[in-house]
Amino acid sequence: MPLERTFIPYGAYWSTPFCRWQGGLGGFHALELAARAGRAFFAAQKLGVEAFDGVALGTTVPQRHAFYGAPWLAAMLGMPGVTGPTIAQACATSAAVLAHAALEVEAGFRECVLTVTADRTSNGPHLYYPNPRGPGGRGDAEDWVWDNFNRDPWGEVAMVQTAENVGKQAGIGRKEQEEMCLLRHAQYADALANERAFQRRYLVPIALDAKRSGSGAVELDDGVRTLTAADLAAQKPVLRDGTVTSGTQTFPGDGNAGIVVTTAERARSLARDPGVTVALRAFADARVDKAHMPAATVPAARRALERAGLGLAELRAVKTHNPFALNDVYFCKQLGLAPERVNRFGSSLVYGHPQAPTGARAVMELIEELVLAGGGHGLFAGCAAGDTAMALVLTVR
Fold first, then answer.
1. Is residue 174 part of a domain?
2. pLDDT tens-digit profile of 136-195?
3. What domain range includes position 313?
4. Taking 60 as the threshold, does the pLDDT of residue 210 lie above it?
5. CATH number at residue 294
6. Which residues contact 186 (CB under 8 A, 6 or more apart)?
7. For residue 139, what are the contacts with CB-CB under 8 A and spacing of at least 6?
8. Domain count, the chain
């Protein structure tokens, strides 16, 4: 059954620019920075914090005091009486957070939930796990970001190997991946046209401490590469005898995003344009064979569409989280979608992947693309590490 009571107020969302690993946001606490971005957004939109009766935080990389999660974030946002959960589901964290908020609103448990997703892959924690039974009582160590990027304990491979596994299974080679990568970069260039007119619909600058950063604000994505066909052809595979190169995969990043989820009535009162309606229709997840992560987006997308009562032909826009160009090659082939129809105006393959907020930014881009098209149904799907994925369907009228 589709959702019936859950909406996103048009324009009641923000994303900061995404910065490459160890870039402009690398020295800032992700949750504190998200609170700063949220307060600035509330002030700019004249949105009072009294509107919210719930908060949901998505974050995947622990930082100091992250134990206090969503309630701490709500307090920093000026909402000390509001609480909610902290959710982590790797790259699908945004979809999981939005699904949680939607189900709360749909059930009547909350009326207006602020979802915030924030991560800093830069300067991730180096953890020590005590082990009294280890040799000499020595414990075990983990680099949270890099050790988990490089080994799924269930599939026992690095994430890049999951792309190679699907590529081998589906017969996808370098040429198709490089062509997809160049297309996605060209689509991102469209978002920069007319002085970034498309990005200005949802992307907001984030003010920094000039004494610490040497810059007063981050206004643009940091880390986007300029690539040509010759550049891609000259790169060596990441894995021996593989097909994925550094150019046809994304890069870790930092950033935050926020999306309001509420009822139809509240959505109209909080919208930038009350004449635009954004309805959340359905969510779904899926799991496939272990170590075949890119393949999971296909069943997740199909299930979400089935729950929404829609077919692929009825979609007017499609967005994906694509850590590898191979993801989109596989997704488009399996669903019979022209690559040009997917990820108009850019994707995480181009502007980076700060984990939790990646999907939220894609959802904002999906909404704005549909608004420019005059409305219609849209699909977002994204993989979630190892062998899982999530998808959602929304409608703009």
1. yes
2. 889 999 999 999 999 999 999 999 999 999 999 999 999 999 999 999 999 999 999 999
3. 159-195+277-396
4. no
5. 3.40.47.10
6. none
7. 128, 129, 130, 131
8. 1
